[in-house]
Amino acid sequence: MDRTNKEQQISELKEKFEKSVAVVLADYRGLTVPAVTALREEFRKQQCEYKVYKNTLVVRAIAGTPMENMGKYLTGPTAVIFSWDSPSTAAKIARAFAKTNEKFHLKGGYLEGSILDEKGVLASADLPGKDEIRASLLATMVAPATNTVRTLNAAVQNFAYVLDARKRALEAIA
């Protein structure tokens, strides 16, 4: 690889690291091509990118950034997984894949200014996804209106219950 090509890849990598919400590093040694292809496709479906770069290029790209200490995980074959949309998506997919493929090992990662080890990446997989957070926020916003409607409806509903009970009592006497 010539110097201009390396510089181009380093600048491309820097841009990807800046845009990504989270990064996961994994050892893919021993995986079959179909397994890696299926894994890449799964990441792509979830707005993530799985790519293999030379470790030296990644180290140069993260030099001088908050991700610089992530370089200690860049030994041996390393796949770099960028998560563009949700901070936990890449970790969730990687954790699920690692459970079914013992040759796939998580090394570390980066999330919101913190360098993560393998345990940290696994813990980040438990974070709620973007859609889960949206649903929770929507439920929180709708709750007061729902409770108001229930409260207003309760008086009418209770009155209907009283009338029904009185009707049954009169029918029982007759």
CATH class of the largest domain: Alpha Beta
Mean pLDDT: 86
The share of residues in helices is 55-70%
Tally of strands: 5
Number of helices: 6
What is the percentage of strand-forming residues?
Answer: 15-25%
Spell out the helices and strands N to C: HEHEHEHEEHH
Distance between the termini: 99 Å
Major beta sheet summary: 5 strands, antiparallel
Largest beta sheet: strand ordering: 2-3-1-4-5
Can you offer a commentary on this structure?
- This protein is of the alpha+beta class and 174 residues long.
- It folds into 2 domains: 3-127, Alpha-Beta Plaits (2-Layer Sandwich), CATH 3.30.70.1730; 128-174.
- Helices cover 58% and strands 16% of the residues.
- The chain has a 5-stranded antiparallel β-sheet with strand order 2-3-1-4-5.
- Strand 4 (105-111) and strand 5 (114-117) form a beta hairpin.
- The longest helix has 44 residues, at 130-173.
- The radius of gyration is 27 Å and the shape is elongated.
- The mean pLDDT is 86.
Descriptive tags:
Alpha-Beta Plaits, five-stranded antiparallel β-sheet, alpha+beta, 174 residues, elongated
Please outline the helices and strands:
Elements: H1 3-19, E1 22-27, H2 33-45, E2 48-52, H3 55-62, E3 79-83, H4 89-100, E4 105-111, E5 114-117, H5 118-124, H6 130-173
Antiparallel strand pairs: 1-3, 1-4, 2-3, 4-5
Helix pairs in contact: 1-3
Brief summary of the model shown:
The protein is α+β, with helices and mostly antiparallel strands and 174 residues long. It has helices spanning 3-19, 33-45, 55-62, 89-100, 118-124, 130-173; strands at residues 22-27, 48-52, 79-83, 105-111, 114-117. 58% of the residues lie in helices and 16% in strands.
